[in-house]
Amino acid sequence: MTSDSKALTxxxxxxxxxxxxxxxTGAGCSAASGIPTYRNDSGEWQRNQPIQxxxxxxxxxxxxxxxxxxxAGWPLIDLAQPNAAHWTxxxxxxxxQISMLVTQNVDRLHQQAGHxxxxxxxxxxxxxICLACHQVIERDxxxxxxxxxxxxxxxxxxxxxxxxxxxVEEQLTRELKVxxxxxxxxxxxPNVVFFGGAVPKTTVENIFSQLxxxxxxxxxxxxxxxFSGFRFCRHAHQKGLPIAAINQGKTRADDLFSVKLEADCVxxxxxxxxTNH
Length: 277
Ligand SMILES: [Zn+2]
Fold this sequence. Notes:
This protein has about 280 residues and is α/β, with parallel strands linked by helices.
């Protein structure tokens, strides 16, 4: 037996032994759908740091920069399709093997694959929210407004970055006109949790309570570098709940896992599903 098939056997028995899993997914899950990840296998930043919450809230220049890059990056996120990881996890949920899926991704690909009980831990990129009146609008509508206001017919992304971000000409980041809320004139923000922003407390408490009722935690494609995801591993560990992880590269919680597959999560889940019939 090769080490790959041995690891797969360990994962399969973990899933068989723990019938109600809470699953936590990260960027590794969406990489095969063409959405780049923030960090390499060693957990280091691959690019410049992403926008910080406080900068977006306080600085008009930061918001211009964010929307210029998002204007170019959004169409590619919008077109992204689920891959074998999303399909397999949705199939596992349909077989009652997963009680809740918590994702750190903002691309909604789990939902596109038919997954029902999904918590978007860091929000969703397909929506925009007004910071003043809290009205939520479609990201597609914001795209149309941005294009109209700036008289742009064809934005050109130089390179795609994570979470609908993309490199664009510097001039665009300086000169972009950003629409305000059509209802109250307030500042519009993508409905996501930026770095330095907080996940709502009720969301975190709900996940903790679901975790307490689960038989195990399965981490898929996350280095768990960000505390908002890591805390669920710490909580599971403190409660004596077994944790399995599939991730290419090291994670912040490696010493908490009972099973760790150092492998591509999409290929691993595809192999798991194909041998399940
Ligand atoms: Zn408003």
